[in-house]
Amino acid sequence: MVAPRVYQAMQQNVVGHLDPFFFEVAEEIRTLLGYVFSTANQRNLAISGTGSSGMEAAVANFTEPGTKFALLSNGFFADRIGEMARRHGAQVARLTKNWGEPFDAQEAREFIRRERPQLVALVQAETSTGMYNQAKPVCEAAHEVDALVIADCVTSLGGMPVMVDENGVDIAYSCTQKGLGCPPGLAPVTVSPRAVERLRQRKTTVESWYLDLELLDTYYTGHKYHHTACATLFYALREGLAMVADEGRECRWQRHLANHLAFVAGIEGMGLRMHVAQDHRLWTLNTPRVPDSVDDAKLRQYLLDRRGIEIAGGFGPLAGKILRIGLMGYGSTIDNVMLLLEALEDGLRQQGYRPPASGVAAAQAAQRPR
């Protein structure tokens, strides 16, 4: 859901992509991204493109032909990173788990120490499964072998601790339409000084002209023409980031956690179970398992037609097995939790499923102080 403040910001007059006011907004975004990513990095920017453009920028700028690229994969978007790396000429080594199964920290360390790659990539917030992968042990092992770490934070930024500096992430990217409550169209990216230095030591030219981070830096900081950026999307992102700062990172994380826990209590009260183990769940994207007697496509269509609620289903090996329900950014409210639970219960009953208890009542009980 796009926040009303963001819609209001988007009503400002459009200025040109070389206008001084545009660069003022871009500079505010650079500073605010440091706060939201929890980093002291100065190379913070918004790439014109969706979250996948951030992913490809991270891969393209730090991959050369023959680069050893270690990938921790337990979902769809990790596999997408691997495909991008392959296309850019990397030698991809994989540590693979079932979709939604966490990595053992020691197993990840041993994998990286064994492969000794130049790059390591993981998805901190796996949108396909609702899984939150721990970055710190991966980063520690990667830095032991002098590798850079790329982290996908598309579904965590603005709703969960990303902690770029504390974890040791070198390149992180996200999107605007999830935890930041903005429309899609920009990809926030942060790059550590260590990674900037590695980028400048490349032996070959970055194959992607459009996503070349050095060229983009001459645009955003040097104000030299590179491409025609959309001022309206920058207004939106600036406002979405300002909302995070106004609420406070920690308060925002706590709001997402509290609403996630209430939702999970409601799901379990209805006799359903979550796909991901408790300590590894995203707070922003909830993935309850679909009961065997229920057709998930019919359930989602019922919610859309009767309630105007759109939720996603699983895909790949999880097709028909899970629901993917976002409670993030402006949309993460207790009112939305109760609305979703009540509507889900109604939709399940339409297919003959009988919950053992009220999901709304269970969520309400979970909110009470103990």
Number of helices: 14
Main structural class: alpha/beta
The ordered string of helix (H) and strand (E) elements is: HHEHEHEHEEEHEHEEHHHHEHEEHH
DSSP helix fraction: 40-55%
Number of strands: 12
Order of strands across the widest beta sheet? 1-9-8-7-4-2-3
Count the domains.
2
Q: What distance separates the N and C termini?
A: 32 Å
**CATH superfamily assignment of the largest domain?**
Type I PLP-dependent aspartate aminotransferase-like (Major domain)
**What does the main sheet amount to?**
7 strands, mixed
Can you describe this structure in just a few lines?
The chain has 370 residues and is α/β, with parallel strands linked by helices. It has helices at residues 4-9, 20-37, 51-62, 76-87, 105-115, 136-144, 164-167, 193-200, 213-220, 231-247, 249-269, 296-307, 334-350, 359-367; strands spanning 43-48, 68-73, 91-96, 119-123, 125-126, 131-132, 148-152, 171-173, 186-191, 285-286, 312-313, 323-326.
Task: Please characterize this protein's 3D structure.
The structure is a single chain. With 370 residues, the chain is an alpha/beta fold. The chain has 2 domains: 4-247, Aspartate Aminotransferase, domain 2 (3-Layer(aba) Sandwich), CATH 3.40.640; 249-367, Aspartate Aminotransferase, domain 1, CATH 3.90.1150. Helices cover 44% and strands 13% of the residues. Strands 1-9-8-7-4-2-3 form a 7-stranded mixed β-sheet, with helices on both faces. It has a 3-stranded antiparallel β-sheet with strand order 10-12-11, covered by helices on one side. The longest helix has 21 residues, at 249-269. The radius of gyration is 21 Å and the shape is globular. The relative contact order is 0.15.
